[in-house]
Amino acid sequence: QGAKEAQTLLKKKMQLVVTTATDFAKSKGHSFVTTEHLLIAIMCDEDVQRVTIRASENTNVVQDITNKINDYLNNSNDIPVVLDVKDAITATDDFMSAIDRANARMVAMGGDPTMVDALMSIIQNQDTVAGTVLLNEQLTNENIKNAAMHFGIEGFGLGDKQPDDEEHIALLREYCVNLNEKAGSGKIDPL
Predict the structure, then answer these.
(1) Which residues fall within 8 angstroms of residue 150, CB to CB, at 6 or more apart?
(2) Residue 21 · residue 40 · CB < 8 Å
(3) In the chain, N or C terminus with fewer CB closer than 10 Å?
(4) Are 33 and 90 a contacting pair, CB within 8 Å?
């Protein structure tokens, strides 16, 4: 029951974000929807706003990020302009990768979907203007995770405990060798 509800919610949230990003790209007259458009759409999410403010320790970070991305989108010649309104807008590979990573993280971790996953997936792509802007604002995945934990946002897997975790841990201890424990007790020779 919970997993199906989470996947349905995930689909709805991600569809809304993708639609918002695409509509934003159209409003700018762009031929492509990029991670920068995606970041603008994600920054509208209340959880993302709270987490970014806490993670960066800057109460103006949401506005700062939005301004920097808008400046880039308004002044860059990197994104071709749509010549005909009938032309379809195409998603860039970076955009699709960010969406795919966010979806994979949310589904794999089994928590409730959150746009924090999408934010973290953009941070991982440091080759984009969006990723660089986030990192310049001191927004690392570690800072985001810590801030999300502070607010009890666990959709990206932190703190999500499955009911049978204790059983899995017991089985691992019974049938596997924990190399970290062995190394810590000096039972593994150094290389």
Answers:
(1) 54
(2) yes
(3) C
(4) yes
At 17, the amino acid letter reads V
Distance of alpha carbon 100 from alpha carbon 32, whole angstroms: 17
Helix (H) or strand (E) holding 188: none
Q: How far apart are CA 134 and CA 126, in angstroms?
A: 9
CA atoms within 13 A on the CB side of 89: 23
pLDDT in tens, 59-95: 999 999 999 999 999 998 877 776 565 667 889 999 9
- 48 neighbors 116 (Cβ within 8 angstroms): yes
Return the SS3 of 108. helix
Q: How many helices (H) and strands (E) does the chain have?
A: 10, 2
What would the pLDDT profile of 94-126 be if each residue is shown by its tens digit?
A: 999 888 887 776 666 665 557 888 899 899 888
Q: Where are the beta strands (DSSP E) in 14-168?
A: 32-33, 90-91
State residue 152 phi and psi, 5-degree precision. Answer: 75, 20
Tell me which amino acid residue 190 is: P
